[in-house]
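Office hours follow-up: a student asked to see two folded examples consecutively, so here they are.
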Amino acid sequence: MKVYRSIEEFIPPPKTVVTSGTFDGVHFGHQQILKQITTAAREEGAETVMITYWPHPRFVLFDDPQKHPKLLTTLEEKIKLLEQNGLDHLIVLEFNKEFSKLTSMEFIQHILIDGIQTNKLVIGYDHKFGRNQEGSFDYLKEHAPSFGFEVEEIPKQELEEVAVSSTKIREALHQGDVKRANKYLRYRYMIHGTVTDGNKLGRKIGFPTANIKVDVDYKLIPKNGTYAVEVEINQKRYMGMLNIGNKPTVTDGSQKTIEVNIFHFNENIYGEEISVRFVDFLRNEQKFSNVDELIHQLSIDKQNTLQLFQS
């Protein structure tokens, strides 16, 4: 997959099948769109092109940080997921105040027609574009003959009678329901970060942990609690259990941390990059009467995690 950081970098191939959107999470619904454009491109001897935007439009359109969404994927994570889904070309357009003022007609002419020379455009059922989201599938369909390209809409994708969306996945993660989130994503939700130095209490009680500092503040961190996870470090994968929270048994609870106990692992990895994929929620974070109770519960958590990986 080739990645372009502006429309000017892109040199259009002879035929293109195009889609557009933020594609946060590259979830099941997004994957259906990617499958559709790949099939159409194969039938028509074309190459697939996606237009996406960075930063997320809401970061630019809303000054109030409370209105900024926590994202399922960083740009780097999204690029890797799109490549895994067989995309040929990814155009990452900078979303700024000036870009947000483009009318739907200006977007179509400058980006879709002049920039990409689109032959076919495939979009999701609720996709809008242009200033004030004035552009829609109906608008495109009505004017398609004059644009010189075909337009196709992907209907709402249903999974267990629930429309798959980035919003519903975020809600599941906020509730700690990583199994439901993973079902909608069709892969295990992940976080990436750097291993930082901690208070080393875990090592003293027989459960050494790696403290994870997530490198961006907009990444969605699931609900506080203990999780069964898959850990990747130095291109190797391990089982583990992870705690998100304030460690009320051993600290004053003023600082939130993300700590992972990696099974069958005993290496110094401070400063290393680490990835964690969530398998299942084990329990809510709780305050124990003493450290011995905590150790007993951690032993149960480890056994439950091992059983999950064996099932």
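And the second, which I mentioned at the end of office hours:
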Amino acid sequence: MQPHQLNPAIEPQFEAVNDYIINHLGSNVPLVEKIGHYIVESGGKRIRPLLVLLAANVAGYKGKEHISLAAIIEFIHTATLLHDDVVDNSDLRRGKDTANAKWGNAPSVLVGDFLYSRAFQIMVEIGSMEIMSVISNATNVIAEGEVLQLLNTKNPDTTEDAYMQVILGKTAMLFEAATEAGAILANSSASEREALRLYGLHLGTAFQLIDDVMDYLSTAEEMGKNVGDDLAEGKATLPLIHAMRAGTEEQRLLVRQAIRKGGLDDLQPIMDIVKETGAIEYTQQKAQTEADSAIAALTALPDNSFKDTLIQIANIAVKRKS
């Protein structure tokens, strides 16, 4: 079951978001439309726009602008994917060729820029300076997070705190912006807005930590990308950071060497070390703690089916394999 199917009341709104996204990919440049449609229609759970819908609904919103707001969040997310795949030289995303693998790096970057600018065009139509402030700040933090991750690439001395800062920027920030913006649109109270902001922050962190785990546990078919991509790119994610901390001197040196050189030559021994040192369980527990914090934040919100769905999503996030 897809996340949007957890609540029948949200399904028509979710479909309206999908229609809105497709209808706003228009461009006078055919390649822009072609790449935009390819990446937007290539699958994915659309969890971030779904969070906008749920956040607005849980706070009692009755209007229509949450549809366009959800599309804004998805356009920004899609733009970051296009840019990420170029930076990481990725060739597989959601089980399909990446846009850069099909059309090259330059068109992928430029279409990513188009999607960013389209998101801000739609934001102007909504006309909320508060929402614009939240989302523009989020896009700035996301960009910083990507640069920070780039600086940490092939650096085996990356600390857990430093990596959590990367997660905040590259993933959690857009989750946070999605739920907080939904709350703003619904004219929520300060306490409800803060509750939804915290929910998004903690959920996004849990989501990324499980992504880190899946790089060592899942298959390419389950993930929709290549197994070992993080290691191949020399990313010192939390499982590797913990493995270096908890392993023997020999294991620590092997992991350090693998991070420094990148590639997949040592994938199997590194996967063995990650499992032997309890790094999988450690990272999963961190993700569970974040999911629990997300759920705890919702106590400030009224009890309704949309709150129940937000709780379900947090629980599903730490158990997923894709």
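Two things to take away from it. The longest strand covers residues 92-93. The two ends are 12 Å apart (CA to CA).
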